[in-house]
Amino acid sequence: MKKDSQRSRGRPRAFDKDAAIDAATQVFWRLGYANASLDELTTAMKLSRPSLYSAFGDKEGLFLTCLESHGGAIAARVHEAANSDGDVREILSNILMSALKIYTLPDPVPRGCLFAAASLSDVTLSPDLREAVTAQLARISRETASVIERAPPTHMPADAAARLFSSMLYGFASRARLGESLEVLSSDAEDMLNLLYPKSE
What we know:
mainly alpha; Tetracycline Repressor, domain 2; 72% helix; 0% strand
């Protein structure tokens, strides 16, 4: 009986990996990569440090997993919007407005987006992390480019328009993180979208 009890205590506890990744993502999103301590991560994930290391390798491995998961979720939402009914301008407007609502959710949800939080911290000092963030941003850009390519603006190439739209998303995420309101960002988003697809008079 004693041996069985000892084995039970020594056996790693099972955990919900997806829930742990979501919890870690919220910590990284709120604090950035550099400022997210292992204590804060393990507390949010309800894991011990040995369990974290066993599942993800280290803090960087965990962050890379969070980036992949978060990027995949965003790309899926953009892909769904891209395949909805409506003209190109309407679809892009829906993508923008959906993003802005996420960027400006009330506390305790972090403002902005994980990628803005990451690139504004010292992730840029790590080539692997910089490459991972860049890859996820490119993944989302490809989805928006597929929409723009259906009906490119008359005054600029489709690839340039796609880059401009991606810059809008990133810029608004950064501004939201600094505290700007949904109302202000939405107004500016409409003005910037008019640069790509002016409304018919």
